[in-house]
Structures are given as C-alpha cells and as structure tokens.
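Researcher: I'd like a structural prediction for the single chain below. Treat it as a standalone chain; there are no partners to consider.
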Amino acid sequence: MKGNMNNMMKQMQKMQKQMTKAQEELHELSFEASAGGGMVTVTANGKKEIIDVQIKEEVVDSDDVEMLQDLVLAATNDVLKQIEDKTNDTMGQFTKGLNMPGMF
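Model: Treating it as a single chain, here is the predicted structure.
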C-alpha cells in the first residue's frame, strides 16, 4: 500500500510540473483577432493582456465613433475567447477523466 501511495505522489508531482510548463508556454503565446474586415486588430498574450491595438485610418470617423468602439470591442472579445479556448484545450488535458468540480 505504501508503494502505491509513493507512486501516486510521484505521478502527481510530475503532472504538476507538466501543468506549470504548459501554463508558462501558454503565457508566451500571442493571439490576434480583427473586426470590420481587418479595420481593427487586437493582439493579446496568453496572460490575457492586450499588447497591441491597430486601427486603420479609414475607419476613424468623428461622426461615427460608436462603430469604431463596436469594432474594438468585437476584436477584443474575439481575442480573449481565443485565449480562453486555447487555455481550456491545453490545461484540460490534465483534468480529463478526473471528477474534480471547479477545475478548468
């Protein structure tokens, strides 16, 4: 019985190291989304930090600021969704088959 417990602890430590490595790799990734046919592009890293926003000059219209705001929101929400999906795909492999409520 003691050998099984030691083996399980080693497996848990190995999985924890793999999870930490996977999370670090996710944080290094870059994600990009655009809206309005490329008129607004938002770039974020895997930490869900917006690192760049590009707005094409032709979309800037002082009479229609609302459209520009909508495009920025759409691109930002899209890039955050991409990060969330990638995180779930990557980190979900560690909890697959485990019945642990609240995990990923």
